[in-house]
Amino acid sequence: MLVMKRDQPVLIQGGMGVAISDWRLARAVSKEGHLGVVSGTALDAVLARRLQLGDPGGHMRRALAEFPVPDVADRILTRYFLEDGKQADQSFRQTSMKRDKPSQNLEGLLVAANFAEVYLAKEGHHGPVGINYLEKIQAPTLPSLYGAMLAGVDYVLMGAGIPKAIPAILDNLADGLPVEMKLDVKDATEEDVFHTRFDPARVMNGGGTVVKRPAFLAIVSSHVLATMLARRIDTPADGFVVESPTAGGHNAPPRGKLTLNDDGEPIYGDRDIPNLPAIRELGLPFWLAGGYADPDRVREALDSGAAGVQVGTAFAYCEESGLDADLKRQVLELSRQAQARIFTDPVGSPTGFPFKVVQLEGTLSDSDVYEGRTRVCELGYLRTAYQKDDGKIGWRCPAEPVDDYVRKGGDAEDTISRKCLCSALMANVGLGQIQREGAREPTLITSGNDVADVARFLPYSYKAADVIRHLLPDG
User: Fold this and answer.
1) Strand ranges of the sheet holding 239-243, from the earlier edge strand across to the other edge
2) Can you tell me the distance from the alpha carbon of 30 to that of 195, in angstroms, rounded to the nearest whole number?
3) Which of 452, 446, 447, 443 has the alpha carbon at shortest distance from 362?
4) Span 11-323+460-471: which CATH code?
5) Which of the pair, 402 or 101, is modelled with greater confidence?
6) For residues 242 and 286, is the Cβ–Cβ distance under 8 A?
7) What pTM does this model have?
8) Secondary structure string (H, E, C) spanning 353-420
9) pLDDT at 69
10) How far is 262 from 392, CA to CA, in rounded Å?
11) What percent of the chain has pLDDT over 90?
12) Shortest CA distance to 283 belongs to which of 240, 219, 233, 235?
């Protein structure tokens, strides 16, 4: 078990969306002495699309120039980099969706993309940097972890599932050893067990490099899961981020029978409030998340025994975040007018987890925009693996074309109101696809309940350092 240092960060910046928490935001927070976190979701596609836009500022090429296997970096640049950028009406060249058994090229892209994001976040300072992954997105996890570790990532955070295999995987990757992880496969029999595997030597041209082992923080919403990850696995977690139902993005479903309020949102009760005394008794550091973007609540968290807090929403609308500037402006104006509203959508996400969505005209939260979008699945991060009749793995998503989903054995009812988060979250950061009929992918903004209060940071442009000074006025 990794021994955590006493000088824990008081403040963790949440790893949000696809490239909302990009390297610029994480670097800005880290330079202030707190834990800046990059989102590890879809970084292979993010890197490929940034390069196809001409790599403004040259940042991706600068990071790739430091990648320890130049041949891998060169192949990526040859395949994706367009010096003058693609035409505005031209579609992005797609990355492969075969991430459970990736080709050597895709494996290299996954490693290099995670390396690049962490490298840039750590560039030019000595503050801590973390990376956030979703346990639900299993297929690209192993090469992604290794890429982040090659760049010296200090913390790995993971939620949206039960990440019990990750601490031991980090141990082995730090030693340059091959690793494997069990895949969750629907309809699989007890005899049929599927794994995704990764050997660092395949990317590193014959030898896995020994790298620093980062601390692992599991994102949990209950003491039951925290206890399992602390005491009932061979290699325990190093700490926890404890989320309440008000936190942004995906939420854990309410415990017990699902009931909805008059607006159609899940109702959370006393059983969904984390048992902090039980978590504190585990003896591992923990941070509280969901509604803690207030100095009084930070003090309350510290008084409860927490090492600090994780804050996302306040950082999502700051100058350094990756969110499109016009979308920031619209949401901040709604907040200023006390009209910013979050809907906890019980069925919108393909994952089946409740998902918090900002209600904003012109995005997929608008029923007309949702109905007008042609269903397509071209990124595939939130697909579910299932066992086909021939015993092999297939992949399906309730947000893909309905006929395709049903043909793969899915229930048509599961497709109702499902939204393609993969494509929408890419569009949020200016990397949306141009579809065959010329339509641009619509956006969909996720935030925590704190979006109602981000107007406190107005005027319209504020920086990550302003958020930190607000939360920690006494340092």
Assistant:
1) 11-13, 308-311, 286-289, 239-243, 215-220, 155-159, 129-134, 36-39
2) 35
3) 443
4) 3.20.20
5) 402
6) yes
7) 0.94
8) CCEEEECCCCCCCCHHHHHHCCCCCCCCCCCEEEECCCCCEEEECCCCCHHHHHHCCCCHHHHCCCCC
9) 95
10) 43
11) 72
12) 240
Mean pLDDT of the region 287-306: 93
pLDDT for residue 100 is more than 90: no
Please determine, for residue 353, whether its predicted confidence score (pLDDT) is greater than 90.
no
pLDDT at 343 over 70: yes
Distance CA 364, CA 327 (A): 13
Per-residue model confidence (pLDDT) at position 452: 80
Summarised one tens digit per residue, pLDDT across range 222-239 is 898 999 999 998 999 999
Q: Tokens 């570790």 map to which residue? A: 149
DSSP 246-282: TSSSB-PPPSSS--B-TTSPBPP-GGGS--HHHHHTT
Q: Are 268 and 470 spatial neighbours (Cβ–Cβ below 8 Å)? A: no
Instruction: Say how many C-beta atoms besides its own lie within 10 A of residue 149's C-beta.
Output: 25
> CA-to-CA distance for 59 and 283, rounded, in angstroms?
41
Contact 39, 62 (CB under 8 A): no
* C-alpha–C-alpha distance, residues 82 and 69, integer Å: 21
Locate 20 and state its tokens. Answer: 């909302």
Flag the least confident range among 21-30, 251-260, 326-335, 382-391: 251-260
Strand duo 384-387 + 185-186: pairing? parallel
